[in-house]
Write a structure and sequence with these properties.
The complex is a heteropentamer of chains A (about 180), B (about 650), C (about 350), D (about 500) and E (about 100). Chain A is mainly α. Chain A contains 8 helices and no strands. Chain B has a two-stranded antiparallel ribbon. In chain B, helix 3 runs antiparallel to helix 4 and helix 4 packs antiparallel against helix 11. Chain D is mainly alpha-helical and about 500 residues long. Chain D has a domain of about 220 residues. Classes of the chains: A mainly alpha (about 180), B mainly alpha (about 650), C mainly alpha (about 350), D mainly alpha (about 500), E mainly alpha (about 100). At the A-C interface, helix 2, helix 3 and helix 4 of A face helix 2, helix 5, helix 6 and helix 7 of C.
């Protein structure tokens, strides 16, 4: 036991490793829940779990700001919206949908698997152009400055996209007044 | 500094102030408005007196200021008073003031009384700009402004369509002349870089080229317009539509003489420029003769006087043309006095009788004695009887024509002499028909005009009689010597009396008067019979040589036609092209539509038919289910990834 | 202070043990860190439970006095132990699970709802340097973690498989989402002025002058308190659990310890809202105008805020659903935007 | 303080404010709208007063990077060429606002569009970036289209569409020119000052050997810009939209159209085409000359044939605007100043003319010149005012029109003598149509139909009197304007050089 | 960071493939939306991982991730509206039942 802990890895690295693989496993399970579960609400919860897991991954990757935003957006907004969708279409989800998957199950599986195989074959063999982090990592201030300087145009555009989506959603979902 | 030089601008500015006051508040002042205007005129006169005095002492006054910078080039404006200016100043302000006073009586009761005096003030201002200006631009500004005033005053009674038309005619005819003037200014600017009289005189003195003829003629064009010389003379007779004091002031004494003044002022352009002088003299001579012939037969008293003015102006222009640079201005001054007097007298007659037709008058001597006697004074002055004003100046003109360097000067001299006889004749005719004999129309109850009108008549009569004396041999040609200081670039030459010329002149004047006496007092020769015997000439003269008709036929009509044609061109062709482009675009659109429908669409339909048949099978792919599409998409993605990887491997290998 | 000493002893003991067992210094430090974490966690948990129980007692007392009653007064002095008695009762109660509920969801909901409440205490600023985890993005963290409770409420409402619970849950979620926006927007001016999202720096920025002492501060404060009240579903915004309409909303089907967890979460959330209001607007542990600083002030302010919330509850009648929505979107939101704009312009002009 | 931005966008702010005012409160709308035009005018006066003519270069500049990827900057600034135009815009828009008082239908929309239009105009004159220039230029079309198309006369749709398409076509050519400038400049830039200095140093198009029937690329670019601006001026033969648009537009819009919009074409020459492409401009000086002369003569002739008052004024505009081209064709400082002076003076005079036509039209509901007669006796004040303005556009000395024409002739005469003589002859025709108009409307016996016509009222007088004062002031003392434009013209002439060096 | 970049990528790949599979096979429209969200999340992990490993100072990947999140939120909002609309008109949200676009 003691020897194991005294190997090359520092305790901090151990923590990272363990948390990463733990979280990864959890995320994969939750993701599978999302696509396989019959109860669509449970799927939504799975999505929430994936989102939280992703937030944790971001924290590990020193992206604090992004992690919190991820929680705020995904858990607070996206999953909530999906849950609402589930509630509002509950009858359809429960009653008529006997089958949860469609006719192209097998072929989809094959295609996705082949894509997966291709990439999983390629990822470890690729040499990534990584750098060792020196100096300050990007923090919220860096991001904010970047948003308002280099990326001001995309930032504005995305704001407009959001606004348009908002209006579009309202228009679509509104019942026509009789 | 309150020295006199700085006061010069006030001479024109006081009338301008009067104009502004009257135009803004005149309607509230009623007839008191006249006092403002008269006051301004008298003030201008009073202010110009010291200037005139200084020229008597052989001094001149000059002031200038920089008006503006055009790029780096300063453009200066200035006022100057030398002897020529002083003479004009005297004429304008003195006669002008008298006519202002006279107008109070003449315009009494008019509904636009204050407006009339406002215009008079504006005219005063503009005329003084011409007179005082030391450069062509200043003169041009005043030139246009007097044209405007003339327009406003001719069409003063605009309810009469003829008055409105006459005003427009005057303005347009003037404008044609102004084009020449403006072009002359541009030419001088281009050639000498200045339009200041003194500097121009200097530069022209050094000028060696031959290009001066055209600018000189162009400059003369301005004078032709303003002084109503042939071929732009047609406006002046029509201008008699305006109130009679206006005719006296503007269309007899001052404004129309501005052309003569301007030519005299810029005489350095013409001096030694024989071609240009020829043009000037012949036009003047022709105008003088033509107008005199027309005046013979006119029956409207103002028309006769108008043609007489034309004729006299022609005389002055001819004088300048033949090199009589002093004779012209001299006649200008004498003419201003006696012609103003004639017009005012005619105005008094019209005021008293209510008609302008001399055939309806007669025997007014008893009813309107003051008017009659003053008219007589003017008559003897214009007829050229010694020793009255007209005689001296005309004699001067004839003399300089006789001695002129211009080719054909003897012909000009002959025509001049003959015209003098004509002048004496028609003036006598007017005088005899109006004042002597019996009253021909019993309906007319003539009465003498009020004092406010007759007093100016009397004053003018005095001057009309004796203003020529300073230029007479008795005074040792004092006037000519005085005026000479305005022409420093000319050699002053001795004036030799030529008694032959003098005698011929007196003889012809007397014979003209005598003929009129025989025809209209004695009745020994019947005017009707004379008219019958030379009927074509009579009709020709009565209809004013048909100038209006000729212009109407050959200028106005084609001109108006061309404007309409151009408008049609604009609407149908230029705009048509635009609309046509639109039409073509739409037509092309339609053609394309047809083409599209039958050819393109046909082919498409063919393909469509083929496709339809074949796609019965292929369309099964399109299920409407999005997920099928996504699947295909992903397959494609997988393939791309695959090929990409293969490629990279090749690259690596 | 004895608690702190105890913690200190624990840490010393752990590092001693690690060293004597032959671990490398790194590992010893690591274990020590874990010990610290556990100690802090234990402290926080204890704090939470104590505070929650204190608050329940306080609420009953306050409501009693507001209604001219005395409130609990039998168990212990001033009825202080009434809450403990209640807790014991709830712990011992039989755990009833209705037949038709969605078991896993129904079970998980009360557990998940406590998590954000507890995690939020990580940023509780007791005193200068006495913040368990002074994150750079503390405010954002609290806001983000708070939104997790939405999921829990959804789970409770859905899992109960009960019409009332479902409607209650949906109402709650709608309300929380709606009022989260003005709440965040009310804080934005403070963040703009302090230039930081960390509690420590925000409080330090108010060491002399509280944010409340300005017009925009008052506006922000009022907006925040109103939206805070709505976020924790307290009267007058208790529509989701309106007894007369929905029985008890999303926790209708819960009893025993599960119900207790919901209860604890609610009161904890109240503390957090009060904590944010105190830290952000009322200067945290500072007295105004440099008069002093102490954890006592912080706690006093938190309790004053809680008292204010309780006062609301027993004073105002409940709103209707549409009124609540209209008030949130059409009144609070524009005002908070205007407030931000104003502060922004003011800053721009000043800078 | 960002004075120019403020001045440009104050009317836009006004339009936004007006959007919030209820439709039914027309009085409030009018006063608020007018208030904003007044503020804009005051700002334009402040700009004019702050401008230091003796100081070279652009002043009051505002520079922000906007779209760095294509080197577009938000760049405002003024020099002696834009300051008078800005002042003119502020003044005329305010007066047109006063003249808009009797717009009765759809008041709110009217004022919103009106203020929007003012922003476009101000922006065009104040900007120093081709991209911005193009945006402001095109943005003006939209309100103009609606203002003519909704509040216009009987053929308003035709006129509006014609105006829109014509100007848009010009705008497209102009845009092509801009793009060519952008892609050939090195480094790529749309900044007007930068392009000017590049062009004047001959660095633009350096080494470009493109030939098209003997025309080089700068020639083609210049032609594209020329047509774009010429349509706006409008230069013969691109002028036919003008009579239609003027006749159909409501009075205040006619005023703005004549007084400000037409100036943009000329402004484009002065600001963009000539300074940036001096050599091409010299190469095409004959085009300016010919089209200018044709415009002057042709416009005057056609104006004489008109019976519609507004059409007459519209064609007289064509004639007057020809002087700008004539002045610019000579490449002398007098000509350039004369052309510019003509722009300003025409803005004042024709603006007033349209206002006065509007006054008459409001009372008589007809613009047929032959339907009037003898009004001088009935409406003396109106007669006085109309006469002054008519005489001003006739080129009477003492008013700004004369100065402008005189300078133009002065500049053009040494270079093109015969052609200038032709242009000078036209002043007779000008006098002809102006006097003919006055005779038909004001003089002669009174047409009994108008026996009860009321005289011009105080509000209408208020719109015209400032213009009278300005035109006389500029006629008597041209230095008021010359002091502003002289230095910048001098610099420009030095940079461009004479036509035949 | 002891965990290599490749592992993050593989985690992301797995989640992406799961999401892809879900998007291809789920009948429930809401399910499809959720699967799409999974894919987006996977992409985000990728971006952040690259950001951390390739250019840790500039944070470009994080910025991209923020944009992706905004788009995800927008797509969910619109998706919700569409699904509700479809549900209202067709009483079903099964993706293979909604084939109105079929020729």
């Amino acid at each position: 036991m003691t020897e194991l802990f005294n190997t090359a890895l520092t305790p901090w690295e151990w923590t990272q490793l363990i948390s990463f693989y733990g979280i990864a496993a959890l995320m994969i399970v939750a993701a599978l829940m999302v696509v396989t579960l019959r109860n669509i609400f449970h799927s939504a919860l799975g999505l929430a779990a994936v989102a939280l897991g992703a937030a944790a991954i971001y924290l590990m990757l020193d992206a604090e700001f992004l992690a919190f935003v991820q929680i705020l957006v995904y858990v607070g907004a996206v999953v909530t919206l999906i849950a609402f969708m589930v509630m509002l279409t509950q009858r359809a989800s429960h009653g008529k949908l006997v089958r949860q998957s469609n006719d192209q199950k097998t072929i989809s599986f094959i295609v996705v698997l082949s894509l997966f195989a291709l990439l999983i074959w390629k990822i470890p063999t690729t040499v990534w152009n990584t750098t060792v982090s020196t100096g300050n990592l990007a923090d919220a201030k860096t991001l904010g400055t970047a948003f308002l300087k280099e990326y001001i145009m995309p930032f504005e555009v995305i704001s407009i996209v959001l606004l348009v989506a908002l209006i579009g959603a309202i228009v679509l979902a509104r019942r026509e007044p009789k | 500094m309150l020295n006199y030089t700085n006061l010069i601008p006030l001479i024109p500015l006081i009338p301008l102030a009067s104009f502004v006051i009257l135009i803004l508040f005149g309607s509230r002042m009623k007839e008191k408005a006249a006092y403002v205007s008269i006051g301004a005129a008298l003030a201008a006169f009073a202010l110009s007196v010291p200037g005139i005095m200084m020229t008597l002492k052989h001094q001149s006054v000059h002031m200038e200021w920089i008006w503006l910078y055009l790029g780096d080039r300063p453009i200066k404006m200035g006022f100057m008073i030398d002897s020529l200016t002083a003479m004009m100043l005297f004429v304008v302000t003195f006669i002008g003031s008298l006519i202002h006073i006279y107008s109070v009586g003449y315009m009494h009761g008019d509904k636009r009384f204050s407006r009339y005096f406002a215009y008079l003030s504006l005219f005063f201002f503009s005329m003084l700009l011409i007179v005082l200006g030391d450069n062509l631009i200043m003169v041009f500004i005043g030139w246009e402004m007097v044209g405007l005033c003339s327009y406003l005053l001719i069409s003063f009674w605009f309810e009469r369509m003829s008055a409105a038309r006459a005003g427009m005619k005057a303005f347009l005819a003037n404008r044609v002349g102004d084009v020449g003037f403006l072009l002359a200014i541009l030419s001088f600017f281009w050639m000498f870089g200045t339009v200041n009289f003194e500097q121009m005189a200097e530069k022209i003195h050094q000028y060696q080229g031959t290009m001066l003829v055209i600018p000189a003629v162009l400059l003369f064009c301005g004078a032709v317009g303003k002084s109503a010389q042939f071929p732009l003379h047609v406006w002046l007779p029509d201008a008699m539509e305006g109130p009679t004091p206006v005719s006296a002031l503007i269309h007899a004494a001052t404004m129309v003489a501005a052309g003569v003044y301007m030519v005299a002022r810029s005489f350095f352009v013409f001096h030694g420029n024989i071609e240009a002088m020829q043009v000037v003299s012949y036009i003047g001579c022709f105008t003088a003769f033509m107008a005199a012939t027309i005046a013979l037969t006119q029956t409207d008293i103002k028309k006769v006087l108008a043609y007489s003015t034309l004729s006299q102006l022609g005389y002055m222009v001819m004088a300048l043309g033949v090199g009589g640079y002093i004779a012209g201005p001299f006649h200008l001054m004498t003419h201003a006095f006696f012609k103003a007097l004639l017009f005012l007298g005619a105005g008094s007659v019209i005021h008293g009788t209510g008609t302008q037709d001399i055939r309806q008058m007669g025997g007014l001597m008893k009813k309107m004695p003051i008017t009659a006697w003053t008219f007589l004074a003017a008559f003897v002055a214009i007829a050229g009887l010694p020793p009255f004003a007209g005689f001296w100046s005309k004699d001067e003109i004839l003399l300089s024509t006789f001695n002129s360097p211009v080719p054909g000067h003897l012909f000009l001299f002959a025509v001049g002499l003959f015209t003098e006889a004509l002048t004496a004749f028609y003036m006598a005719r007017v005088f005899f028909l109006t004042f002597l004999g019996d009253a021909r129309d019993k309906e007319i109850h003539a009465h003498e005009s009020p004092l406010v009108m007759t007093v100016p008549l009397a004053i003018l009569a005095f001057f009309a009689l004796f203003i020529g004396l300073p230029g007479s041999p008795m005074a040792g040609h004092w006037f000519q010597h005085w005026l000479q200081q305005s022409f420093p670039y000319m050699h002053a030459h001795e004036i030799h009396l030529n008694f032959g010329v003098m005698g011929a002149s007196i003889f012809l004047a007397l014979s003209g008067i005598g003929l009129a006496y025989l025809m209209y007092i004695k009745g020994t020769i019947s005017p009707d019979k004379v008219a019958q015997s030379i009927r074509p000439l009579y009709i020709y003269s009565l209809n004013k040589w048909y100038w209006d008709e000729i212009y109407g036929m050959f200028l106005i009509k084609p001109f108006l036609w061309s404007t309409n044609a151009l408008y049609a061109f604009d609407v149908w062709i230029v705009d048509g092209v635009v609309n046509g482009a639109a039409m073509v675009a739409r037509g092309l659109g339609f053609l394309q539509f047809i083409f599209d429908k039958y050819i393109v669409d046909g082919i498409v339909n063919l393909f469509g038919w083929v496709t339809q048949k074949s796609s019965r099978i292929v369309r099964l792919v399109q299920t409407g289910i999005i997920q099928n599409y996504i699947l295909l998409l992903v397959v494609g993605l997988a393939l791309i990834v695959w090929f990409k990887i293969l490629e990279n491997m090749h690259a690596v290998l | 202070m004895s608690l702190l000493e105890l913690t200190d002893k624990l840490i010393q003991w752990v590092s001693e043990m690690a060293r004597t067992q032959g671990y490398s210094p790194e590992w010893a430090g690591f274990f020590t860190a874990i010990a610290i974490m556990l100690a802090v966690g234990g402290f926080v948990l204890g704090f939470i439970s104590v505070v929650a129980m204190l608050l329940i007692w306080m609420e009953r007392k306050v409501s009693g006095h507001m209604q001219s009653r005395i409130g609990p007064n039998r168990v212990g002095p001033f009825g202080l132990f009434q809450s403990i008695a209640d807790a014991v009762k709830l712990l011992l109660k039989e755990d009833i699970a209705p037949k038709m509920v969605d078991k896993p969801v129904w079970w998980l909901a009360p557990i998940i709802i406590v998590v954000p409440a507890v995690l939020s205490f990580l940023c509780f600023p007791f005193h200068k340097g006495w913040i368990p985890l002074d994150l750079n993005l503390g405010l954002l963290f609290i806001m983000a973690i708070g939104s997790v409770s939405v999921i829990a409420i959804f789970m409770a409402g859905y899992g109960s498989n009960n019409k009332y619970s479902l409607i209650g849950g949906m109402r709650t979620v709608a309300q929380i989402i709606s009022y989260e926006v003005p709440a965040i927007l009310a804080i934005v001016p403070v963040v703009m002025l302090a230039g930081s999202l960390s509690f420590g720096q925000i409080i330090e920025a108010q060491s002399f002058r509280w944010n409340l002492f300005s017009l925009w501060g008052i506006v922000s404060f009022i907006i925040y308190v109103i939206s805070g009240t709505a976020e924790i579903n307290r009267t007058p915004f208790d529509i989701p659990e309106a007894e007369s309409e929905l029985v008890a909303g999303y926790h209708t089907e819960y009893s025993g310890m599960k119900f207790a967890l919901f209860f604890v979460a609610e009161y904890t959330n109240m503390v957090i809202v009060s904590m944010i209001a105190s830290a952000v607007f009322l200067g945290g542990y500072y007295l105004p105008f440099g008069l002093g600083a102490s954890p006592v002030w912080m706690l006093l302010k938190v309790f004053a805020m809680i008292f204010l919330l309780m006062w609301f509850r027993w004073t105002f009648p409940r709103l209707r659903v549409d009124q609540m929505m209209i008030f949130g979107w059409k009144v609070l939101l524009p005002i908070s935007f205007a407030n931000i704009a104003w502060v922004g312009i003011w800053m721009a002009l000043k800078l | 303080m960002p004075l120019l931005s403020l001045m440009t966008f104050i009317p836009l702010a006004g339009a936004l404010v007006l959007l919030g005012v209820p439709k039914s409160r027309t009085e409030t709308i009018k006063w608020v709208g007018l208030g904003f035009t007044i503020i804009a005018f005051i700002l334009s006066v402040i700009v004019t007063l702050q401008y230091v003519p003796t100081q070279p270069g652009f002043q009051m500049q505002e520079y922000y990077s906007w779209i760095p990827q294509i080197h577009v900057n938000y760049h405002l600034g003024v020099d002696g060429i834009s300051v008078p135009m800005i002042l003119l815009t502020g003044l005329i828009t305010m007066l047109a606002g006063v003249a808009s008082w009797n717009i009765k239908i759809r008041v709110k929309e009217y004022w919103v569009l009106f203020l929007f239009l003012e922003t476009g105009m101000m922006g065009t004159f104040a900007c120093l970036d081709l991209f911005l220039f193009y945006i402001f230029w095109e943005i003006m079309l939209v309100p103009m289209y609606f203002l003519i198309g909704i509040w216009g006369g009987p053929r308003k749709e035709y006129a509006a569409i014609k105006f829109f398409l014509y100007t848009l076509a010009g705008g497209v050519l102009m845009l092509i020119g801009f793009l060519a400038l952008y892609f050939t400049s090195e480094p790529h830039t749309l900044s007007i000052p930068l392009l000017q200095s590049l062009g004047q140093q001959g660095k633009l198009f350096a080494g470009n050997n493109f030939r098209f029937y003997g025309l080089t690329l700068p020639h083609l670019v210049f032609l594209a810009l020329f047509i774009g601006f010429a349509i706006k001026v409008p230069v013969w033969p691109f002028h036919t939209w003008l009579p239609d648009a003027h006749v159909e537009a409501p009075t205040p819009i006619s005023v703005i159209l004549a007084a400000v919009l037409l100036k943009m074409g000329g402004y484009g020459f002065y600001r963009i085409s000539h300074p940036i492409l001096p050599d091409a401009a010299k190469h095409f000086s004959w085009l300016f000359l010919i089209l200018g002369i044709i415009g002057i003569v042709y416009g005057a002739f056609v104006a004489l044939a008109q019976t519609d008052f507004k059409k007459m004024v519209a064609y007289s505009s064509v004639s007057h605007m020809g002087f700008i081209l004539l002045g610019m064709s000579a490449f002398t400082i007098e000509g350039f100043i004369g052309g510019y002076y003509q722009m300003f003076s025409h803005g004042i005079l024709t603006g007033a003319m349209f206002l006065l036509v509007g006054v008459l039209y409001d009372r008589a509901h007809t613009r047929d010149l032959n339907a009037f007669g003898g009004l001088a006796a009935k409406v003396p004040v109106y007669t006085f005012v109309l006469s002054i303005m008519a005489l001003g556009s006739l080129g009477l000395p003492g008013m700004s029109g004369f100065i402008a024409e005189f300078f133009t002739f002065l500049g053009a005469f040494p270079v093109y003598r015969e052609m200038t003589m032709l242009a000078v002859l036209t002043i007779v025709v000008t006098a002809g149509y102006i006097l003919f108009m006055m005779q038909r409307v004001l003089l002669g016996p009174l047409n009994e139909k108008w026996a009860n016509m009321p005289d011009i009222n105080a509000r209408e007088l208020l719109t015209v009197v400032p213009l009278i004062v300005i035109t006389i002031a500029l006629g008597v003392c041209p230095s008021l304007l010359l002091n502003i434009i002289n230095p910048v013209m001098k610099t420009m002439m030095v940079a461009i050089g004479p036509l035949h060096p | 960071m002891i965990v290599p970049l490749a592992h993050f990528l593989i985690l992301s790949l797995i989640i992406f493939c799961i999401g892809l599979y879900g998007a291809l096979t789920r009948r429930n429209a809401v399910g499809i939306l959720m699967s799409v969200e999974l894919m987006l999340n996977a992409a985000n992990i990728n971006l952040v991982a690259f950001s951390r490993f390739v250019s840790p100072q500039s944070g470009t990947g994080q910025i991209f991730a923020v944009f992706v999140m905004a788009l995800a939120a927008a797509s969910v909002a619109v998706g919700l509206a569409i699904v509700i609309c479809i549900y209202r008109n067709h009483r079903t949200i099964a993706a293979d039942k909604i084939d109105l676009m079929k020729w």
